[in-house]
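We treat protein structure as text, and this decision shapes the records that our systems exchange. Because each token names a local backbone shape, the row as a whole describes the fold. An entry from our holdings is shown next, in its original layout:
>
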Amino acid sequence: MSSNKLNQDFLRSLVLIFCLLGFLVISAKESLADQVGVNLLNDQTVALIDQKAKAKLSSCEYVITGLVGSGRVVFTKSYGNNLVNDDYYYWSVTKTLTTMIVMQLVDEEKIGSVEDSIWEYIDKIKGNTCVQDKYTDTPVTIKHLLTHTSGLPDFEESGPCANGKLILNFRPGTDYHYSTNGFGILGELIRKVTGKSYNTLVHDYIAVPAAAESLAALEQSEQWLSPGGFCHSTINDLARYSIGVMDNKFVSSPVLYGQILKQYTGSRCLGWMCDNLDGQDIRAYHSGAYSGKRSFLLIKPRKRLSVALFGKIPSGSSGSCSLSGLANDLMVILEENYQNPYDLNGDGKVDLEDLQKFLGNWYSSDFTPGDLNHDGENNSFDFGEILANFNY
């Protein structure tokens, strides 16, 4: 065999190897572009979600999704990267967590009322004495800070104080101006009344009851605005936080619907945006944005549905990567396609006929006192006995 023939065969082999390697690299990149974390949905529903999320990649470098149905995480997936289980900042969605902490402290009587003046609890802001010398007959209250009606500037305009005086652009309670500074002040207030750092408060009052292990926050010593924008976790744990809100892990139903999700100004509730306040279709939501990164949380608490999102503007892009439209689209998909596993008839209700399918004796090895009305000796309960006393 001639050396020329050997060279030709060798070159063909090299070309074949490089083609194969190129195909493997392209395939690997495609497989790394998206990553599923949790999936309890059917293929048809996932296809609808994929279509909406992938369309968003025209204005976002990546989109991370977390969906909740029937009060449990049913779907998490990253689009545009393979980092579905990474840690992401909540940005201004953090304000809803701070609100939940404040309301728990009211319930514990460590704070008297959201109507209280902030000056009953603090006199120093960012470590310096800061007095209210304007509108002194209308002190800034906790509710003013939670509803952005204090008159404070936002952090992008200035700090909350100048020359030892609180900056107020209007009389508290008479107008609306979004202010992350107000949540920095709330962070100082709740630290003062509890003696705990902000990250510890987030852990104790939010992460633990929500079983959200990755949820944490920057300390105010690192970032004074942390209570207004610097909580962070995986998408799964942001979804778990939303479940905690809907399932009254933080505050009771009367507090949630009677005080927090109550219209105060425009579409502003306490720490949340909200609408459709009458009936089952009530919505609460908040967006977040900082340095090209985006977040969004939308809940329908009476339906126990939520959509959690993270995103990012592509480098060098002038786009917005707004996530509100995608959140609304995914909520519609959930409402139209997700079936409560306990809704056996698919009619949107859990009725007596459905429940009767569970009749019988049920056993478990991990009952604890107070779990239903069970036989402590045999770790069992009779579902028929519970059903007989069920209000349906």
User: Anything to note?
Assistant: Residues 352-388 form one domain. Residues 3-33 form the longest helix (31 residues). Residues 17 and 161 are 67 Å apart (CA to CA). Residues 21-31, 364-376 have pLDDT under 50 and may be disordered.
